[in-house]
Amino acid sequence: MDNKSKLVHPLFVLSISLLIINDFYLKYTFHNTFTGKLSDFVGLFAFPFFWSVIFKDKARQIHIGTAALFVFWKAECAQPVIDFINLFGFKTFRTVDYTDYLALTSVIFSYWCINRPVPFAAKAALPKALLVVSLFSFVATTQKRDAPSYEDGFKSIDIHNQGDTKLIAIVDFRYSNANIIQDSSLNNEFNRVDTLTLLPGSSERFITPNPQVNSVEFPSGFKITLLDSLGKQIKGYDKELFLKEATISYTEEKSTEFSSSWSLTIGKKPAEKLKPFKIYGRWKTVSSSKNQHTFEIREKYYYDVDPDSELAKYEIRDSTVMITYPKLIREGRILQIDNRTLTIKWDNKKVLKYEKLYD
Length: 359
Description:
Elements: H1 10-29, H2 33-54, H3 59-73, H4 79-86, H5 105-114, H6 125-142, E1 154-161, E2 167-172, H7 177-182, E3 193-198, E4 203-211, E5 223-228, E6 233-237, H8 239-245, E7 261-266, E8 281-285, E9 294-297, E10 302-306, E11 313-317, E12 320-324, E13 329-337, E14 341-346, E15 350-358
Parallel strand pairs: 1-7
Antiparallel strand pairs: 1-4, 2-3, 2-5, 5-6, 8-9, 8-15, 9-10, 11-12, 12-13, 13-14, 14-15
Helix pairs in contact: 1-2, 1-6, 2-3, 2-5, 3-5
């Protein structure tokens, strides 16, 4: 008998069916402890059973390896590995709950079943179909799902990067086992450390383990760590600083730790690009300035009135004016401008304040 015919074992078919139903429907309909436990029990039966069918001489090693990996994955010591993986933009997380180890009985049961004959024969096409369905169920289970949104019953933190460089935010919103004993609703897949990669101008949402119906304080170890694109820490938030800078999502009102959602803006806001027409006109340094300077700038030329110069070409780059003279280039960084006043830092040295004489 072809070893792949073992895939028609009734318990394997049942476990694969439950894995798919749970992953695509039950988790997102009920989202409770039972659905999480169900994934562990049926997954730990189906996964080693399947690979033992494919590699029939390695059944013992596959089952031992599966059990060892599960023990490590569910332990607190795996968190540094998960944090490292998430630095690369993956959304990897799990809940530390040592009662999950009860699911290891499924590994033992799987090993017992793989060494027993299938109770009935099946047509050749059925094992092949189950092979494809099984691979699909394993891949689908490991794929990133869209996290439940604000409306789906969990409080959330929206983080917006207003800067012009990529930033990484590591959010630690884990409750201790003591907290979970007091409030079992906190024991869900969002009780974790998560890493958000924020491109310039983008926003990401972190789902907290706090149900909307609860008024629970932040975990004592709450923190958000900001890293630059090279992994260097540039800022850290504890609860106090976070609540000081965060607002309530969609309202921009000041937040508290019992708010229904939070919004945090990070990154250095880039200088606003200069609109050329705002600088057109003749400008003269204010009377209190030690260095007197008058210039005129138009769409086609720049001209030093005092001291006198020839017409020069110029280029505006963001908030900087680059003036090209015959023998040199001057750089004027605009620090402030409105309808009648202007402040320029010339060549990164001299700061001059101007008032407009006429448009």
